[in-house]
Amino acid sequence: MRIIVRSKNGYGKDIKRDVIGLIEKGGAEWTGEIEKGCDFAIIVGGDGTVLRDQHHLECPILGINPGKSVGFYMQAGCKDYRKKVMSLLNGREGKDYHIHNMMRLEASVNGMKMPSLALNEILVSSVYVRRIFESDLKIEGRKSMERNSGIIVYTPTGSHAFAHSAGAPEMRHDAGRFGVVAIAPYSGMLKKRPLLLENGHVEIECLNESGEICMDGSEVNMRELKKGDTVAVKKSDKSLRLVGFGKREF
After folding, report:
1. In the chain, what are the domain boundaries?
2. What are the CA-CA distances from residue 179 to residues 61, 70, 90 (Å)?
3. Please, which of 26, 76, 168, 181 could form a disulfide with 84 given CB 3.0 to 4.6 Å?
4. CATH number of 105-235
5. In this predicted model, what pLDDT tens digit does every residue of 212-243 receive, in sequence order?
6. DSSP state of 118
7. CB of 45 within 8 A of CB of 214?
8. Does the domain made of 2-96 have the CATH classification 3.40.50.1100?
């Protein structure tokens, strides 16, 4: 067994060191680099650390929260991480731990795919959210000219985060639907309520002179838009696999 161990710089270093010791004592191998072919990844930190690394990880992820960060995706804490790490090393999937598939979204700009996938949400807005964002929105054959402070396309787990603060209803992680909600809607079909989709895709054409697309709130996964650029968003066929315990719902 080979396990990736990652953490936020300078955060949770004692737990990370202890996890590495458990892995070595259990006869498994570990690496601090993101490598293909590993059995698990253990990430010490908060949701931001998971969002940072999830684009590049193909194996199931166990998140350990040292206690000071937002930890929606983190299924172990400072009091129980040792027991749960040992469940991965010695246990059996379906009995001692479970693998949950988390929907991710993919986006393209003018037909060119963004290099990363979004686990929480994709925001399309003006460069400065304080300025109104005008766009043509196409969803399932419907078209609307939207005026708001930005449009969020979100996953079920993302419905608990940024999108929820904009009025999106919370969904279970396995709801199978993704949603679209506007920030401070002024006019358009998103003024009435957020929209939920089973499949298909969302198209957002920028009508401002400039705008941007940002994935999971990361400046690394951001691209500037110009007038006439079209962002297309749909479900990815590559879900994130997250380690959980018991029957907990995300």
Report:
1. 2-96, 105-235
2. 25, 22, 39
3. 76
4. 2.60.200.30
5. 999 999 888 999 999 999 999 999 999 999 99
6. B
7. no
8. no
